[in-house]
Design goal:
46% of the residues lie in helices and 12% in strands. With 476 residues, it is of the alpha/beta class. The chain has a single domain, classed as Glycosidases (TIM Barrel, Alpha-Beta Barrel). The strands form three sheets. The chain has an eight-stranded parallel barrel with strand order 1-2-3-4-5-7-9-10, surrounded by five helices. The chain has a two-stranded parallel ribbon with strand order 6-8. Strands 11-12 form a two-stranded antiparallel ribbon. α12 (218-237) crosses α15. 46% of the residues are buried. It binds 1-deoxynojirimycin (NOJ). Residues 34, 37, 188-189, 323, 353, 381, 429, 436, 445 line the site of 1-deoxynojirimycin.
Length: 476
């Protein structure tokens, strides 16, 4: 080739690139939080009482679980702008380009359905602007387990009106932030909300056998799925230039002992109940047969219509948020609809969030690719904690097990991406130690250690390891 031909070739290549290749969206690296777990300021700026304000302050829920009353009243003080600006600076130092956060419905519409609280709207407006100014893309979850207590007292998801109340709130949010927020999330982990948390909260009064109790929650879950679909439709009808998705906890199941047929069978059963129960209606427009059979037996009044299921499937989320911590390791005795599998952990050093098996993150991403039409996915939560290493010694927190967990999960996630899974981002739960629901402040899951008395932040070793991972994947 002559010099002239080479220049001509390069010129054509340049034209081709600019004309035909689409601008590649950068892979998003992030950290995640949720309003109730980090904001504190529980009576500030006209905030109404929320479900979790009520549960922690009035019911004293953590007394039953950790033997002490703890609340999110102060938490890690992230409602305070002086504080959160320092936290944004830490995120910049970490090198993330996205941040998953949630809005507190009880701040925005204190009584759930009535007047909108401008002060709270303004607060989130400024927070979103502060994030954007720092080059951090906000992923805004509208509902992360919490909602105004007035609505809980009216039955919450047991009340057929709940969908309308939520839709009204969602429309306020879209109108206010829809131009600048490019990623909204409707709901977080319906499985955990309806089966795990509901079960714990009602454990004292719940007289139903496990099967019946479990299945009695299905009406609520289905109502949330229908609401999810109508709110996705509402968002798309507004023709905003962003995306909306839902977050599911996915725990692919595996038998405790692969040689025992009871364990294998029970694992298959739990796998359907945990994962397919939500994935199938969303992506295939039907509930899995195995779950429907149990429903017929234990909750015969649950009969979602074909029309409703078709509607859910017609409003697919633009992306799926995957929260992955651990697989479900299942024993034969867990063949029931119950949550006993959560106690099974063969690891010798046990984490706060189940067995460490990063290959299952790869497996679930490939399963989404192969069985669910390869939806656009963001890992919206992944992380862990070990009581033994979350201690400050000489001003430092050495948490090699958390760092190793993150490293290995990222490797498996990127392996799936390389093999065609439509993975677009990865976020660690959490940036900061925070209020871990019924475990209060006893479980630390942050990359940044928080002194809950002084609010002092200290980045842990895992913070610096994650920083290196992000740096080494620039341009992904
Ligand atoms: C999932 C939930 O979304 C989050 O609120 C919780 O803190 C983490 N899991 C860790 O348990």
């Amino acid at each position: 080739m002559t010099m002239k031909q080479i220049i001509h070739f390069l010129f054509l290549l340049c034209i081709y690139e600019t004309t035909f290749s689409q601008k590649k969206e950068p892979f998003l690296w992030g950290v995640a939080t949720c309003a109730y777990q980090v904001e504190g300021a529980y009576q500030t700026d006209g905030k109404g009482e929320s479900k979790w304000d009520f549960l922690t302050n009035k019911v004293g829920i953590t007394q039953f679980t950790i033997g002490e009353k703890q609340t999110g009243n102060v938490s890690i003080n992230m409602y305070d702008r002086t504080q959160y600006l320092k936290d944004i600076a830490l995120m910049k130092e970490l090198g993330v380009n996205s941040y998953r956060m949630s809005l507190d419905w009880s701040r925005i519409i204190p009584d759930g359905t009535g007047a909108v609280n401008e002060v709270a709207l303004k607060h989130y407006d400024i927070l979103i602007d502060d994030l954007l100014a720092a080059g951090i893309e906000p992923f805004v979850t509208l509902y992360h387990f919490d909602f105004p207590n007035v609505l809980l007292q009216k039955g919450g998801w047991n009340n057929p009106e709940m969908g309308n109340w939520y839709s009204n709130y969602a429309s306020v949010v879209f109108k206010r932030y829809g131009q600048k927020v490019k990623h909204f999330i409707t709901f977080n982990e319906p499985y955990i909300e309806f089966f795990l948390v509901e079960n714990m909260l009602n454990a004292q009064s719940n007289k139903l056998p496990a099967n019946e109790y479990y299945m009695s929650r299905m009406q609520m879950a289905q109502r949330q799925m229908m609401t999810n679909a109508s709110v996705i439709k509402m968002y798309h009808d507004l023709k905003l230039k962003g995306e909306i998705g839902i977050v599911l906890n996915l725990n692919p199941a595996a038998p405790w002992d692969a040689k025992k047929s009871e364990d294998v069978k029970a694992a298959e059963f739990q796998d359907v109940l945990i994962n397919d129960l939500f994935l199938n209606p969303l992506y295939k427009g039907k509930y899995p047969k195995m779950a429907l059979d149990s429903l017929k037996k234990y909750n015969p009044s649950f009969q979602p219509s074909d029309k409703d299921l078709a509607f859910i499937a017609s409003q697919k989320p633009d992306f799926l948020g995957v929260n992955f911590y651990a697989p479900a390791i299942v024993k034969g005795e867990d063949s029931q609809m119950s949550l006993k599998w959560l106690d099974n952990n063969p690891d010798s050093v046990k984490s706060n969030v189940g067995p460490v098996k990063p290959e299952y993150l790869y497996k679930i991403l490939m399963r989404l690719k192969n069985e669910y039409g390869n939806p656009k996915v963001f890992i919206t939560e992944n992380g862990t904690g070990f009581v033994s290493e979350d201690v400050k010694i000489n001003g430092k927190i050495n948490d090699p097990m958390r760092a190793d967990y993150i490293k290995r999960h990222v490797e498996y996630a990127l392996k799936a991406k390389k093999e065609g899974a439509n993975l677009n981002g990865y976020m660690v739960w959490s940036g900061w130690d925070n209020f871990e629901w019924v475990s209060g402040y006893t479980k630390r899951l942050g990359l940044i250690y928080v002194d809950f008395k002084t609010q002092e932040r200290t980045p842990k070793q895992s913070f610096y390891e994650y920083q290196k991972i992000i740096k080494s994947h620039k341009g992904l």
